[in-house]
Amino acid sequence: MEQTTFFTLGQRVHSSTDPRRVGTVKFVGNVEGYSGIWVGVDWDNEGDGKHDGSINGVRYFQGRSQNSASFLRPQNLSPGISLLQALKLRYQSHSTEQDEDEMYVLSASNKRVSVQLLGKDKIQDKLSRFEELTSASISYLGVSTPGDPAEISASVPNLKELDLMGNLIMDWKDVGTICEQLPHLVALNLSNNLMTQNMTGLPLLKAIRVLVLNSTGINWSQVEILEHSLPVIEELHLMGNNISSIKPTSSSTVQGFDFLRLLNLEDNCLAEWDEILKLSQLKSLEQLYLNKNKLTCIFYPDKIQEVLSNHESCEESYFPFQNLRCLLLGSNEINDLASIDSLNTFPKLIDIRLSDNPIADPARGGLPRFVLIARLAKVEMLNGSEISARERKESEIREIRHKGW
Question: Which residue numbers delimit the CAP-Gly domain (predicted)?
Answer without folding.
Answer: 29-73
